[in-house]
Write a structure and sequence with these properties.
Blueprint lengths: L1 H13 L4 E7 L8 E8 L5 E6 L8 E5 L2 E5 L6 E5 L6 E6 L5 E6 L3 E6 L5 E6 L5 E6 L5 E6 L3 E6 L5 E6 L5 E6 L5 E6 L3 E6 L5 E6 L5 E6 L5 E6 L4 E5 L5 E5 L8 E4 L5 E5 L2 E5 L5 E5 L8 E4 L5 E5 L1
Antiparallel strand pairs: 1-2, 1-28, 3-4, 4-5, 5-6, 7-8, 8-9, 9-10, 11-12, 12-13, 13-14, 15-16, 16-17, 17-18, 19-20, 20-21, 21-22, 23-24, 24-25, 25-26, 27-28
Length: 313
């Protein structure tokens, strides 16, 4: 109960003004930062999540926030589609690998699958007993993973909407979820200050990554599947070896939470927020920061070719 009340107060404290979505070019270190497209998302409260379509032939970006979810043209800033009219905040969003579907997670305890072209609802994924805080598609697009405030993650069949498996073992909210690149494992990050690795086929826990001193709010898998990245309320992000669980490096220097993390498509760079900061994935060295938002950056995503990235605030 305390966890849930604390999180609600944190979110309510942030609900003010319009939210800003910015598309930035990934520069060489000697080049200036280029904001290629600032997109104003006119709604109450901040953007909770942003996503880039993995399909380069369908250049789309998606946003989720207090009043719903939308798809945009990243080059023009045009809003193309809105998904439903939710009564509760949509806090997470992800594209299918081919870009034809979108999955959203909401505080109404459900996740929903949508047709990205028409905006039509395809399935409602019901089974969690509190809000759905994170969503992800499997690399082959056949499954959906959800993380929830009910302390569990669930695996779903994307074609039928049926529940396949529950991953239980965290001692707090599951804030973030991710698939391994081969789809055989899933990664979860939790309020309990840990991230956990699970076997998709059996549901068994394979490894726990411990070392953060506050909630693990975000997780990501490296493109080659050998490393995982975690961000935390302790103001750091950490890189870990999947095979051994060893901590490889710590990205630090924040005054606040690290609320979002992402690998570049080639795996050579790491992007983190609350302020958008680029790091060298091999050495942990700071590369540069990106300014322009007037509040903390809540979500980041790279374009499929790695030349641009998206920030939401």
């Amino acid at each position: 109960m305390f966890q849930r009340a604390f999180e609600r107060l944190r979110r309510l404290g942030a609900l003010c003004g319009a939210a800003l979505l910015a598309l930035l070019a990934v520069p060489a270190l000697a080049e200036p930062v280029v904001v290629t497209q600032p997109l104003m998302w006119y709604g109450l409260g901040p953007l909770e999540c942003v996503a880039y379509s993995p399909n380069p032939e369908m250049p789309l970006v998606a946003t989720a926030g207090k009043i719903g979810a939308d798809v945009w043209n990243p080059e023009t800033g045009e809003r193309l589609r809105t998904f439903g009219a939710p009564e509760h905040s949509v806090v997470s969003i992800a594209f299918s690998p081919d870009g034809t579907q979108v999955v959203t997670g909401s505080e109404d305890w459900t996740a929903k699958l949508w047709d990205a072209s028409t905006g039509a609802e395809v399935h409602t994924l019901s089974g969690h007993t509190y809000g759905v805080s994170s969503v992800a598609f499997s690399p082959d697009g056949t499954k959906v993973l959800t993380g929830s405030e009910d302390w569990t993650a669930k695996l779903w069949d994307a074609s039928t909407g049926s529940e396949l498996r529950t991953f239980s073992g965290h001692a707090g909210y599951v804030y973030s979820v991710a698939f391994s690149p081969d789809g055989t494992k899933v990664l979860t990050g939790s309020w309990d200050r840990t991230a956990k690795l699970w076997d998709v086929a059996t549901g068994s826990e394979l490894r726990t990554f411990s070392g953060h001193t506050d909630a693990v709010t975000c997780v990501a898998y490296s493109p080659d599947g050998t490393k995982v990245l975690t961000g935390s309320g302790d103001g750091t992000a950490k890189l870990w070896a999947v095979a051994t669980g060893a901590q490889l490096c710590t990205f630090s220097g924040y005054a606040g939470d690290v609320g979002c993390v992402a690998f570049s498509p080639d795996g050579t760079k790491v992007l983190t927020g609350s302020s958008a900061t680029l790091w060298d994935a091999a050495t942990g060295a700071y590369l540069r920061s990106f300014s322009g938002h007037t509040d903390s950056v809540s979500s980041v995503a790279f374009s499929p070719d790695g030349t641009k990235f998206l920030t939401g605030s």
